[in-house]
Amino acid sequence: MLENTVEKTISCWPDSGLHGRRKIFTDKKSITPENVVDVVEKALGVHWKNRMEEQYLLDYFRGRQDIRLKEKQVRPEINNKVMVNRANEIVTFKTAYLLGEPLQYVSNGGDDTVSAKVNRLNEFMCSESKDTKDKEIADWMHICGVGVRMVVPDEEGEEDGSPICIYTLDPRDAFVIYYSGVGHKPLAGVLRQWDEEGKPYQCVYTREWYFEIAGGEIKKQEARTIPYIPIIEYPNNESRMGAFEVVVPILNAINTIESNRVDSVQDFVNAYDVFQNCEIDDDAYKALSAGGMAIQIKGAPGMEAKVYRIASELNQTNTQTLVDDLYETALTICGMPNRNGGSSTSDTGTAVIYRDGFAEAESRAKDTEKTFIRSEREFLRIVLYICRNTADLDLQLSDIKPEFTRKNLSNVQSKAQVLAEMLNNSKIHPKLAFEYSGMFTDSEQAYRMSMSWYEEQQAALTRSLREEVNANNGTELVQTGRRSDGTSESQSDETV
Known about the structure:
single chain, 16% strand, alpha+beta
């Protein structure tokens, strides 16, 4: 019933527009068995508004766009509804650009022991296919403006090598309630589930309690053993807006223009025939419409007989210019590169990056990284707590640095030059050179590996020089004919 209500309520772009999802607050400092029902009921009122908008954006991404409601007053039988799914293109690019290379945890300046522990944590994440689940989160972020994740201890009997379970939740069915005071501390995570009869109920997780609420009553209440809220929200930005949300009117305009272009071609092909001052019966008209034969037209006495078509066609050149302009505007607003390239074909390297908009795409991705990492740290707090208690992995949050990587091969040469120049500068520590050159995902590990290799090369060179010196000393000994007692062979012969 709710699904049908949502789809019927938001079937096209709302008159007020969309301005991001609402963050759900309560003025209660803590959620207790006494107030949980009231707090959740009030939160659901805000969540349903978010859910309706999320449903619209998800439908739009999947191709159920406003163009399907297009109406035509003149010749309504010719009413093409062409949908160019630019929203899907925007989301796909944004996610691929942000997480084309998996998010990695690297050591935050620790020693080899800490690095080994971080590597073990990465192995846990690999066992949970976290790279795939990160992509799922990013897709929800770019579509609906927010993604939701849940992390809990591994269930008994599962042998996947990881002490945790990670789930990607549908933001239409999950949300977090925050304290409205300073800091906006998260107080509870809410997940909608269904019982065996198909009736929905709310699972509420606080730091102290787990509740199941249905029909305005607490159906189940348990104390929790993990002092963290297992549901974490990943907002796309501070406004919680989807990647294409702000340009939906432009995308609708492009669909309308493209549909009208097809209508124009079809109108031209199926134009009305005008018989001026002619006598023509139905059979003759059918023969004329079929083509392939000549028909004699008899005009009225004293009046010129004419046969012509009423046909008008859009100027395709001007129309294409308008479409290109709208599309370019949408790309600019969304921080998307023009992957068709610019007018110049001689530009290479950095010039291409700036000309085609990849620099802006990188800047937008950096902004998304900041909000993603903020939520990722909340996720890591729970993971590390579980690992310390079940996997004997003692790591602090300060030991770990989430690292995004985007391999821009056209920029490798310039980064290598920067690294070489910084390493040749005696006033710059080599560690800083590795970090700020931007060549390596884990600059700390790259530095340690490089220094270890350098020390090995220096030690090998020292050994080689020492062996060469010893060999040269042996050659001199043979040439001078020195005995072990220090006397020369010539001196010994003279004595004899």
